[in-house]
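Can anyone check this?
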Amino acid sequence: MTAKKRTARESDAELELVDTDAEMPTSWQERTIERRLSTARARALARSSRFLATALELVEESGRADFTIQTLIDRSNLSLRAFYQHFAGKEELLLALYENATSQFIEAIRHEVAAASGDGPMAQLEAFCRGFLSRAESSEAIGGRVMTIYNLSLEIERPADFAKIWEPHQKLLTKILSSCQRAGLIRKDLTPAQLTTLLNSTLIALAQIGVFHLGVKGAELSEDQLWAWCKQALMPPAETPKAKAAVKAVGAKAPAKRASARKPKKLTG
């Protein structure tokens, strides 16, 4: 009787051990799962990259983004099922294409800024501006016109996505401008964030002029002229002794102005 009880207790202990081991994956199980996940992840990235590369080819060939999903499927030699496994639709594909192109655009500028780091913050700012302008203009040959149009629509229709994609670009420019300001190289009447907004808007506008050929005929601007314009806008206001004396003289003669009750309008968000 005692032997039977002992055997039962031993069986219960063995069952408990088996259950405990079943709840905790062993190292070989973890490796197997990780291997399968890694393979599936690599396959998914390869297919999504293939769809993006094909979409870019279609944009470059036609200069438009009005291709159909079926055209994309036929050109990529992948299935419609595979497409919808990676993208919810064409809009998500275009967003991924834009995000990929923008990421490469920003990374290329970052490398140029890093290369100019030994020459000081103003050299880095020049590298940033020239890198932006030259790449925006040359991008016309690789679908830049379509990307610029998409850039405008994304900013209006999906501002959260737009801000997230361009956040690294904004941070880099703000960092450079902060360094220039600390070194006394640029104006201090505006914050680095305000200067970032103004300079970035200027660069985008100038880039659009180049991509869409919006300038007045016979008034083309070189990269050197565009950089000189941006640099001058960032310079501290000139205060010569003669100008200071003139300001003081006008201030002494002018009657005191009443404070305006009108509140200044906030032009940017």
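Reply from J.R.: I decoded it. Confidence is low (pLDDT under 50) at residues 1-5, 11-21.
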